[in-house]
Each structure stands twice: as structure tokens, then as C-alpha cells.
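Case study: Phosphatidate cytidylyltransferase.
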Amino acid sequence: MSGLVLASLGVAAAFAGGPWLAAACGAAVVAMSYEWARMSEPGAFTPAFMFSLAGSLGAVMFSSWQYLTFAFFWMVACAIASATRRRSIAGFIETAGGAIYIGLPCALFVWLRDRGPEGLETILALFAIIWAADIFAYFGGKLIGGPKIARGLSPNKTWSGIIAGTFAGAAAGLGCGLLFQADATLRLPWVIIGALVAFSGLMGDLFESFLKRRFGVKDASKLIPGHGGVLDRIDSLMAATLLVGAALAFGPGATALLFGRGI
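Here is what the predicted structure looks like once written out:
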């Protein structure tokens, strides 16, 4: 039930866009900064939380004004300032990387929504592909089973789940192309995009498992009843947002054709 509520709020914020989506991402940033500080530096929680929050929240604000470059440099500056507290190279990378891991996807997500006329379609496609991939990866892994993908990281994730999730993402991508009335010649590109976005999301889920294993925790937190923390719920979306954000940052004209007439 809590997952359905969060999904509904996410879709509503995506349709509203502007300050509503920025506020929703800001709330997620507060929760994820708390979770990251709790996991990575329980002995120095307050400074870790404050630096991560300042960097990520500032990045979301800059991004909501479409100043993505400022967002990036502000976030990196806060991440480095926080990392100087650490006394080892591994600790420095961990702290700086954590702040960027939280802030960059959120800033890109806000930027994607308002960067052009097809912003809403971009976000809805991300939701559809990632949700399809997550659902089918879970049930595909349960029903088919088979070899585990990485027992050391996550004992339950299987190759069958990854394949099922990737195929589901490809199908969702095709569905998006049809919904947005894209040209018939772009259906295959939509299938490929769906598969790539889904696979990147599933790898993001695996990366989150790696982080939790490294910090010795089962869930990022217990903020969402029955689902763990916010990081546990949107890890796939974060990774996929990085992929789509990078693609559109370097190829901004690509979406004009892909999204056809839109919704």
C-alpha cells in the first residue's frame, strides 16, 4: 500500500512539474541524506547529514531553475568539503561519492521534467520502464529461479530476474512509443531504449545492494513501512535517471522525434 501511495504521489508531482516536483525531490533528498549519513557515518551523523543535505538540496534548487551546471558544481563543492573530514582515501571517496550519488539523480530528474516540451513524457516513460522492469524482475526471479547474479551482493537476485526485467522494460519502451504516437520507424529504437533504461535501473538496484552490504545494513532505513528506506525504493529510478540525463544532456535534440505528438 505504501508503495502505491508513493507511486501515485510521484506521478502527481510529475504532472504538476515546476515547484511541486522540486518539492517532492527535495523531500526525497532529505530522507536519502538521512539514510546515507546513517549508513555511512553513524559516528559522525550530523556533519555527514548536513553536508549531504546542503549539496543535494541546493543542486535540486538550481536544477529547478534550469541551472544544471551550477547544480553540479555546488553539489561537488559540498561533497568535497564534507569528504575533507575523512582521514583515508576510501573514506574520502565514500563521503564525496555518497553526496553525489544522492544529489545528482535528483537534480537531473527535476531538470528532465522542465527542460523541454516533452519533459512530462520523459518522466512518465522513466516511471513506466522502471516499474515494469522492477516488477517483472522480481516475479521472473521468483518463478523461474536459476543461477544467482552475485551471491556476495544480493543472495536473491537471479539472472532470470535480470533478463525478465530487461524484456519487460523493452516492452514498456515500445508501449511508450505507441502511446506518444512516435513514427513507426522509431518503434525499434524505443524497444532498445526501454531495454537499456531497464537494465541500468536493475544494475542500480544491484549497486544499492552492494552499498548496504558494505555498510552492514539490511535496509537503508525503515522510513517506508514494509519497504525499507527511500534509497531502497528508488535506486533503480536513480540509476536510470543518470543514463537518460546524460544522454539528453549530450543529445538534446533526440527527444523531439522520439516523443512524437506526446500525450
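For the exam, be able to explain this: The first helix runs from residue 2 to 16.
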